[in-house]
Specification:
- The chain is of the alpha+beta class.
- The protein is built from three helices and seven strands.
- The chain has a seven-stranded antiparallel β-sheet with strand order 1-7-6-5-4-3-2.
- It starts with 29 loop residues before the first strand and ends with a helix.
- 32% of the residues are buried.
- InterPro entries: DUF1990 (IPR018960), UCP010260 (IPR014457).
- Pfam families: DUF1990.
Length: 175
């Protein structure tokens, strides 16, 4: 049985395509993936999972504006703010699915009308019982949805990498 997804007016038809970590990128999209070892232990995995579901990554990256629920769940409306200081835009998203597997947890949101990009982004943590390691994972597929996002081109990709690193920094324990 295939999973069901909320049916709001997402700006793309490939809803849920980030669910498979090594799945193909939908045609016409840019792939982004960042994976980092956070440390080891089931306790770290559980803590990181709780933080991800409570939007810790978005808050720490300074882009969180608001969410319709305190913890990510399918259908949650989430608004992120992109920009610096008074120059910025609010970008609406909606949680597509939540991962709640024994060794993989997190959520993905998809873009809604008004977002400058078109696509989906996954925020997850994975536990490998073979070596007790914990990894943070950010995976996305996107393409520009507005003229200014197209104009940003390579700069937009650099910003995506910088924000991705900030996401993972938010759940990486202090060393």
């Amino acid at each position: 049985m295939s999973p069901s997804y909320p049916t709001p007016p997402f700006t793309y038809v490939e809803v849920g395509a980030t669910r498979e970590p090594d799945g193909p990128v939908p045609a016409g999209y840019h792939r982004f993936e960042l994976r980092r070892r956070l440390g080891s232990g089931r306790a770290l995995f559980e803590t990181a999972a709780e933080q991800i579901l409570a939007y810790r990554m978005q808050r720490a990256a300074g882009i969180f504006a608001r969410a319709s629920t305190p913890v990510a769940s399918p259908g949650t409306r989430l608004t992120v703010r992109l920009g610096v200081g008074p120059i910025g835009i609010e970008a609406p998203c909606q949680v597509v699915y939540v991962l709640d597997e024994p060794d993989r947890r997190g959520f993905a949101y998809g873009t809604l009308p008004g977002h400058p990009e078109i696509g989906e982004e996954l925020f997850a943590v994975e536990y490998d019982p073979a070596d007790d390691s914990v990894h943070g994972v950010i995976a996305a597929f996107s393409r520009p949805g507005t003229w200014y996002a197209r104009l940003g081109g390579p700069v937009t990709r650099m910003l995506q990498h910088a924000i991705g690193r900030r996401y993972l920094d938010a759940i990486t324990p202090a060393r």
